[in-house]
Specification:
heterotrimer; A alpha/beta (253); B mainly alpha (644); C alpha/beta (403); B: mainly alpha; 4-stranded parallel β-sheet; 27 helices; 51% helix; C: Rossmann fold; Rossmann fold; 3 domains; 7-stranded parallel β-sheet; 12 helices
Chain lengths: 253, 644, 403
């Protein structure tokens, strides 16, 4: 099976130095669960510093399409993938280094005419020409989707952690450098400034919610001030706990 | 010469030939290792001193064993050596009397060997070792009888003939043990002293720095025995399985699957093609993980299908207690790091929680990915001059990663206040300071270590300072002993030593503290790695504290469990190392454990339940100085403030 | 009995007694003037009365009722007496579409926030149009003026759904379309963007009529622009709509037709979370054991019976009584759970850091002054070791009666 992993020019969130995006490294690990695929990393961008380290984390070879900083990587990637025709294209949930909008895999799938499945945490072979993709849903639930290949699959951060970095493997891996395609990024002018963290708007006593919800939100403030039972009989304590948990909706039986 | 004497001498020559063959076989095995230049002439010249002084310095910690070894080895070597001269001197009865005397001494030694092993302490090995006292006594008794007969002029021929048989049986047994048995230590040990990989150890130098690894080498670290240099292989064969390392090892005590003695025996077993660990008869690895237990010179050492389980490798705290205790001068930690380097650099097989830490070190220069500017946050209100603003300072304060920790931040704040009080001209690198690389290096990630070392050395080269001060012995060791290999030569001083200096010079005037008894816990990287055990004690004594010692202290102190990335490897055991160490501290009856290392602080503070308070030396000094400044509050200062 | 009473306002009272038309102020104190004004005043006696638990011989107070006495709620009956007026927009100047996840026809908090954000964008004469997969009762009160059913074809077919939504967005000339940046919502948003060949302003972190912002380049740069057509909204970035209910009129009688797609998805099944095996960080309900628990088989049975993911404090993990992966706290796992149930955990600061993001905490501990008791919504000062069997028995008893 031919598998291509899309790699982006990640940045470390604290130091700001180039570093591979964690979720793409997890994608490499998922590719390894498909037996021994013919695995290639694909990156389009002006530099491959960040991506090169992925060679130490399970990627044997990297194809680097060299483009200018202002180029849109999509056209080059589509051209490369259209000639290479991998069975499975893996990408992170959200690439880094540019807009971080997570849109590229979708645009790519559209351009290549391939189906796309989002948020994989596991991929298993499912007979000839198909795979089971296990998707992460909130709160630990999963959806198992069988999809016909070729397909694009994006990987969720809940997937197994990446293979650890091996310096010697990074040294051994090969980087093939090709000229990319020049394609100007489209889109309206966007004002940019240094990121500033905004406080989350905690809508505890959501005024738009029903009166019962408001009451609930007000009575169960997280900052304590709840009910206190001192030395109840164990049975009584158990009853109280069960009633309380049921009220919170976490006890489903 | 009498007939039994002639026969004995002839037999000895035969045994010598057999011994030479046995030794030759072993030597040929070592040749599988990588080449290593050894200064033979110097080594051989230094052998008597290395053996009589350095080895016996270690052996002598147990006087009974020292006497036992002196008698046995002395008698055996001198007696047998003299016997080989019989063709020249065989006619003199005095010669035979001397030989009889030597073998009598050996006989006494052999009896002591027997006595030491009944009942057998847990740290000693069984198996082939059970035969050893019998063989020694047999050979010594036999030779003694024959020599006595010859000395008496043949009067005791009735005793001499059985003696000859006894000597032959014992001698043959000993010679056959030269290959795999206990007697291997005799010739491998002697050669190990000659061709020791760290000859500086015998010249009083600090030989504790890890050797740099050539990152361009075709294979990084040690995968198979053949990747060790030949004199390291020789070192493994020198082990006599005395178990002193096992007793000293903190991981062994905590029930983690590491036993330095078994580790060395496993490594020695892999030298032989088709080797197995079946012959080992000492204590196993506690809670040993299942392994195939097979190996060979070209076979991988680490792995479930090989000789040593990875958990064994990652249990080590690199505290060097085993190295300190080893009478055969074996370098366990070097071997472990070499093996770790292969695991980390070639296979990426690091413990689960170590992988993210190494990744953060690679991309953010801090093991927890914290911003470098946040390193100085702990100072909060205490002025902390940046060297970048001035370009030079008398003392450069290296903060280390402990500065991020709230608890150790308090110790550092105390140090800062003391430096200000003593009017010391100091500055910090601030955001320019990167992790010193200690953690990466102990976890085998030499590539990251070398990058961090290079970056830090380049930063330090931009500024002028006389000395580097640090409160972190790990950083101290790395900067002082390991950076020189990369071109960074610094005068590094530990904060306990500097505070001692400042108090001695009168720049700080501590009052007498009336606190509970204090016991000082030596950090491995300060005491064992750097031999600094006196300055902290002197300093504590200057504070008027009543100091009590734990049983294990100074260079023989026990690790807190915080070194070598062990908290990250987090290998499961029965207990935690800091709990054991805190138990030892509590057993002294002390109310305060004085520490001098952020790792020790963190590990010992993590112990729950009733226990002595943990105080960094700088905190105690500050208390004393403040007590002196305001004698009225002296009483109030008696109780250490509680730690949140 | 009301727990509130009006605070007397002597000035207003006097003013009510004043006789009009005289130059000098004169008052007729005998006249029964209506006291109209005055601020509400707490009535502590009435509050306590209300908190009394009936049917027990010992006087017991149910303090969970405490906050009922805030003025907000006592004021509410007067307002809700007159049914809130329905707000109707007959001729909207433009449409702002929202695509809620609405699993099972119920809006998630994230959906409500998104509708709140859409109301901001629809301020000047616009209407909010909800594109729903199935009918939803709550959509009008939540703030939608118009509703259009975009029926999904059977099974999991994100491609078909997104194609229909794209058709609706394009066909109706929608000015803005908002999506929640959730697992499914984010997926649909990107599919629609790809279908329309437009950019998506993904994961907006603040939203107003004139500008939206989002993080990019690894959260180092903030992008800011006038709201584009396609926006997906991060969680907790906008407040839910708080106004009077909206009409939620069906835009057209028939639902949007589904767009046929080449079915590349051969099968799909939901695997519900198994609480015992969910990674702690993802679990919704965690029950955790600390020093106060000695019977760990019993503890695991309680966790299984509650359908909760088992966790533990550091001490317990250090002692090897629970696996290291179960450790909750700063050095273990930081939870995202809805509810955290702590059995015999005092609550070391590092442990509390690990549960900082938990919405509800239930604690059982012998120490009344433990930090965990302070933090808990329901705190029970008792021996966890005794409460656990009682819990098990009560849960078993319940399953028997239901069975």
């Amino acid at each position: 099976m031919k598998v291509t992993v899309l790699l982006s020019a990640g940045l470390h969130p604290v130091s700001g130095r180039p570093c591979p995006a964690a979720v793409e490294l997890q994608a490499i690990r998922l590719a390894h669960t498909l037996g021994t695929p013919e695995l290639t990393g694909l990156h389009a961008g002006p530099a491959a510093d960040a991506v090169r380290d992925a060679l130490g984390q399970g990627l044997p070879r990297l194809l680097w399409l060299e483009t200018a900083v202002e180029d849109d990587p999509l056209a080059g990637l589509v051209a490369a993938l259209a000639t290479d025709r991998p069975d499975l294209i893996l990408a992170g949930r959200q690439a880094q280094g540019a807009d971080d909008s997570g849109l590229l895999p979708y645009a790519l799938a559209k351009a290549l005419g391939l189906p796309i499945i989002a948020d994989a945490v596991a991929i298993e072979p499912a007979g000839e020409g198909a795979v089971h993709v296990v998707q992460a849903l909130p709160r630990g639930a999963r959806r198992r989707v069988t999809v016909r290949l070729p397909a694009v699959v994006t990987v969720h951060p809940a997937a197994p952690t990446a293979l650890p970095f091996a310096f010697a493997a990074a040294r051994r891996g090969t980087v093939e450098r090709r000229a990319g395609q020049a394609a100007l990024r489209s889109g309206a002018a966007i004002d940019e400034r240094p990121y500033r963290k905004r406080p989350k708007l905690i809508a505890k006593a959501a005024a738009g919610a029903s009166a019962a919800d408001r009451l609930k939100a007000a009575t169960e403030s997280a900052a304590g001030g709840g009910r206190l039972l001192v030395d109840p009989a164990p049975d009584e304590a158990a009853r109280e706990i069960i009633a309380h948990l049921r009220e919170l909706g976490v006890l489903r039986r | 010469m009498s007939a039994p004497a002639v026969s004995l001498v002839a037999m000895l020559y035969v045994l010598a030939v057999i011994a030479a063959v046995m030794m030759g076989r072993r030597v040929s095995l070592w040749r599988a290792g990588r080449p290593m230049q050894v200064d033979w002439l110097k080594g051989i010249q230094a052998l008597p001193k290395r053996y009589l002084v350095d080895v016996h310095h270690v052996v002598g910690r147990d006087p009974f064993t020292a006497r036992m070894h002196a008698l046995t080895a002395g008698g055996l070597l001198a007696g047998s050596g003299l016997l080989l001269l019989a063709p020249l001197a065989g006619g003199f009865r005095l010669y035979w009397a001397l030989i009889a005397l030597l073998f009598a001494a050996m006989l006494a030694g052999g009896a002591m060997v027997r006595k030491r092993r009944t009942p057998k302490p847990a740290r000693l090995s069984g198996g082939r070792f059970n035969m050893l006292p019998l063989l020694l006594i047999g050979y010594a008794a036999g030779c003694f009888l024959v020599a006595l007969d010859a000395a008496s002029g043949g009067w005791l021929w009735l005793l001499a003939w059985p003696g000859l048989w006894l000597a032959a049986a014992g001698g043959m047994g000993l010679v056959l043990q030269l290959d795999r048995g206990p007697m291997r230590h005799a010739f491998a040990g002697a050669l190990h002293l000659v061709a020791h990989p760290r000859p500086g150890r015998f010249e009083g130098r600090r030989e504790t720095a890890l050797a740099p690894l050539d990152l361009e080498a075709p294979r990084l670290g040690v995968e198979t025995p053949a990747d060790f240099t030949w004199n390291r292989l020789l070192g493994f064969d020198a082990c006599i399985q005395c178990g002193r390392c096992e007793v000293a090892c903190p991981a062994f005590a905590a029930g983690q699957p590491l036993n330095p003695k078994k580790l060395i025996q496993d490594l020695a077993a892999t030298i032989v093609p088709g080797g197995t660990n079946a012959a080992y008869a000492g204590s196993p690895y506690p809670h040993a993980r299942a392994v195939a237990g097979v190996g060979g010179p070209q076979q991988a050492i680490i792995g479930r299908e090989a000789m040593i389980h990875p958990d064994t490798l990652w249990s080590c705290t690199t505290c060097r207690a085993c190295v300190e205790e080893c009478p055969m001068m074996i370098e366990h930690v070097d071997a472990i790091i070499s093996l770790r380097r292969h695991e980390t650099l070639e296979c990426g097989a690091v413990p689960e929680k170590a992988a993210p830490a190494l990744a953060e070190l690679r991309y953010a220069d801090d093991a927890q990915g914290r911003p470098l500017v946040a390193r100085t946050d702990f100072a909060a209100g205490v002025p902390l001059p940046l060297i970048s603003a001035r370009g030079e300072a008398d003392i450069l304060l290296w903060l280390g990663e402990g500065a991020y920790d709230m608890r150790h931040g308090r110790s550092l704040r105390a140090l800062l206040k003391l430096l200000h009080l003593a009017k010391v001209d100091f500055a910090v690198l601030g955001p320019e300071e990167k992790d010193c690389g200690d953690l990466a290096r102990r976890l085998g990630d030499e590539a990251t270590f070398q990058r961090l070392a290079g970056d830090n050395i380049a930063t330090l080269a931009r500024y002028r300072f006389r000395r580097i001060l640090t409160a972190d012995p790990h950083a101290l060791h790395t900067l002082r002993n390991e950076y020189p290999a990369f071109g960074g030569h610094y005068d590094v001083v530990h904060h306990a030593a500097l505070l001692d200096e400042l108090v001695a010079a009168g720049h700080l005037a501590p009052g007498a503290l009336a606190l509970a008894d204090v016991t000082y816990h030596d950090p491995c990287y300060l005491g064992r790695y750097n031999g600094e055990v006196e300055a902290p004690r002197r300093l504590l004594d200057r504070l008027g504290l009543n100091r009590v010692e734990m049983e294990r202290h100074g260079k023989r102190s026990m690790c807190c469990g915080g070194g070598g990335g062990a908290p990250l490897s987090d290998i499961e055991g029965e207990t935690r190392i800091p709990d054991i160490r805190m138990g030892q501290a509590a057993a002294t009856g002390a109310g305060i454990v004085a520490v001098a290392c952020p790792q020790c602080t963190a590990m010992l503070e993590g112990v729950t339940g009733e226990r002595p308070e943990v105080r960094d030396i700088s905190e105690l000094v500050l208390m004393a100085v403040e007590a002196a400044a305001s004698p009225a509050d002296n009483r109030a200062a008696r109780q250490p403030e509680p730690v949140a | 009995m009301s727990t509130m009473r009006l605070r007397r306002d002597p000035r207003t009272e006097r003013a009510a007694h004043r006789i009009d038309g005289t130059a000098r102020p004169r008052f007729d104190l005998a006249a029964a003037a209506e006291t109209t004004g005055g601020r509400l005043r707490r009535n502590p006696r009435a509050e306590v009365e209300r908190m009394l638990v009936a049917g027990t011989s010992r006087r017991r107070l149910d303090r969970s009722q405490r906050s009922v006495s805030t003025p907000l709620h006592i004021a509410a009956p007067a307002e809700t007496a007159a049914a809130p007026r329905l707000i109707v927009i007959e001729e909207p100047a433009f449409l702002v579409a929202v695509v809620p996840d609405a699993p099972g026809g119920r809006l998630t908090p994230h959906d409500r926030q998104m509708i709140g954000a859409a109301r901001l964008l629809a301020e000047k004469g616009g209407a909010v149009l909800a594109l729903l997969a199935e009918p939803c009762e709550e959509i009008g009160p939540a703030g939608a003026d118009r509703v259009l059913l975009v029926e999904a074809s059977t099974g999991y077919d994100p491609e078909g759904r997104s194609a229909s939504i794209a058709m609706a967005v394009d066909g109706l000339g929608v000015r803005h379309a908002l999506f929640p940046e959730s697992v499914d919502g984010g997926d649909i948003a990107r599919r629609v963007a790809a279908d329309l060949g437009e950019a998506l302003f993904a994961g907006a972190e603040s939203i107003a009529a004139n500008a939206v912002t989002r993080a990019s380049r690894g959260r180092r740069v903030e992008q800011r622009r006038a709201p584009p057509r396609l926006i997906s909204l991060a969680a907790d970035a906008a407040l839910p709509y708080a106004g009077a209910p909206r009409e939620a009129r069906a835009l057209q009688d028939d639902p949007m037709p589904t767009v046929p797609t080449r079915r590349a998805i051969l099968a799909a099944e939901i695997i519900p979370a198994d609480p015992a095996r969910v990674p702690l960080g993802e679990a919704g309900f965690v029950v955790s054991a600390g020093n106060g628990v000695t019977d760990f088989d019993g503890f695991r049975a309680v966790a299984a019976a509650l359908g909760a993911t088992p966790g533990a404090s550091r001490v317990v993990c250090d002692a090897g009584l629970m696996p290291r992966a179960a450790q909750v706290g700063a050095s273990g796992t930081v939870l995202e759970a809805t509810c955290y149930f702590a059995l015999g955990i005092a609550g070391a600061p590092q442990h509390l850091q690990g549960i900082a993001r938990c919405e509800h905490v239930v604690a059982v501990n012998t120490d009344l002054h433990a930090a965990m008791i302070e933090r808990a919504g329901l705190a029970i000062v008792a021996d966890a070791q005794k409460v656990m069997p009682a819990l098990l028995a009560a849960l078993e008893c319940e399953t028997e009666t239901t069975a």
